[in-house]
Amino acid sequence: MAVDPRHVLAGILTLTMFLMLGDMIKRDHFDSTHPTVHDTKKASEHTLASVAKGADGPWKEDGLTLKPCWQKPVLKEADESQGYVTFSLTNGPEYHVSQIADAVVVARYLRATLVIPDIRGSQPGDKRNFKDVYDVEKFIASLDGVVKVVRSQPTEISARNLAVVKVPNRVTEGYIAENIETVFRTKGNIRLVTYFPSVNMKKNKEKTSTDSIACLAMFGTLEPQTEVREVVDSMIDRLKTVSRKSNGQFVAVDLRIDILEKKGCHGNGGSGSKSCYGPQEIALFLKKIGFEKDTTVYVTQTKWHSSLDALKDFFPKTYTKESIMPMEKKDKFLNSDTSEFEKVIDYYICSESDVFVPAISGLFYANVAGKRIASGRTQMLVPATIPGSSATSEEFMSHYVTKKNHFAYSCFC
Asked: Which of 5, 252, 271, 290 keeps 20 to 30 A from 233, CA to CA?
């Protein structure tokens, strides 16, 4: 009995989505949030920011925007093959940046043509065009000379003559040579499905030959399309307006009730660390490290949930997307059949807030951290249960910053 390759691909995409969600919840907890005295001293010495003038609380000024230190590799026309690499973006922008990087690295190694991906949600038939969310012209221009890019899959290529290949996040040349190249040479065209053995973004101990390509793809290709960018900007402006007493500064907290309710978010991990913190725990954490009652807090939960009352009791200026998005934009960006726009909005607000607090460990935290490091917004505070009545915010700075161990530090100088 013949098997329709489209059914096989749909099954792989669905299975991969659940595996990635499981990884995000269960496998990668926060690193220890109680550093040694030496680590705390290093955090204070190496933080680029200084205390913001005229603001109550542990606010820091942004550091300098870092400059890319990778060189854009140029692909010779003679090296280009006739084959195509196709793929889809899934599960939100924190996954998109990694999926883009892997696809570009693979296409570059194979000298293949990269087909601009579509964007797929968690439900069957939930599909958008790349240009609905991202700036397609920016994407093509940024990869000019690196890989050949086409806007759509050629009509002569169908699901039946596409070999589906699973690719681990942060794929290496060795893996491509051993597991992908032969399939590509045989079939001529492949479809990539990225899976995530780990959701951390720590840099490699030694630089690799693909670092410059991965850096460009991860940090230089994706920007929201104009309307999405305008919505993000209007929401940030609103948050700054209601934050007058703190010089327009606000805290963004990645706190989603649906994730918190997952089984993997309850209790402690084997190492004593937690993978998730609830609204009341976040409220106590922010209060104990010195944030004032008047602090403006943005949470990634889309609509108000009764559990957020515990956070609002401590910080009355706590907002969701629903409460600060322009009314005329809500039908398109909040009330659509998919949550894709909501995820993208959260990603960029958390990347551009004055302070970022990841209440949930996982790839969202890791890839938001990368964007923040590149732009000098290094005040990322990893929550913990503080036994005493107070603590300094420096004790809870992200290890990605204090140890400079994020992949972004391989990309920016």
From this structure: 290
